[in-house]
Write a structure and sequence with these properties.
This protein has 123 residues and is of the alpha+beta class. It has a domain of 85 residues: Alpha/Beta hydrolase fold, catalytic domain (Rossmann fold). It is built from five helices and five strands. Strands 3-4-5 form a three-stranded mixed beta sheet, with helices on both faces. Strands 1-2 form a two-stranded antiparallel sheet. Strand 3, helix 3 and strand 4 form a beta-alpha-beta unit. The longest helix has 16 residues. The relative contact order is 0.16.
């Protein structure tokens, strides 16, 4: 498994052609407050959704819990230990476990048989 550093992330973000990173200035206002929080549109989502947060993430996973209450599709919130906001950098193996778990549940004929990988927690 390959581990990435914040330097790798920043380099590849800045060296690559324009990408989703550019949309952040439209999504967030000054101070990283969302102009239109996902909470306002969650009831309209049409696909199963998994939110992944690091235990030390500065973003509050409780917002995802509120969104889940309005959603008409399956929704899961996974918390990854030893991870902050960039959980994919802070704990790549935990992040990968969370993503693979979410994909297995989405593709499974019986998603309830999939068990949460060790170390991860559901919120």
């Amino acid at each position: 498994m390959v581990a990435f550093s914040i330097e790798d992330y920043v380099y590849h973000t800045l060296a690559a052609k324009a990408s989703g990173e550019l949309c952040l200035k439209y999504i967030f206002s000054f101070g990283a407050f969302a102009r239109m929080p996902l909470l306002h549109s969650a009831a309209e989502w049409k696909v199963p959704t998994t939110f992944i947060y690091g235990y030390q993430d500065w973003m509050n996973y409780e917002g995802a819990q509120e969104a889940r209450k309005q959603m008409k599709v399956p929704c899961e919130i996974i918390r990854v230990p030893q991870g902050g906001h960039f959980v994919f950098i802070d704990n790549p193996s935990g992040f990968h476990s969370a993503v693979l778990y979410a994909c297995r549940r989405f593709l499974s004929l019986d998603p309830d048989t999939e068990s949460l990988p060790e170390g991860l927690s559901s919120a």
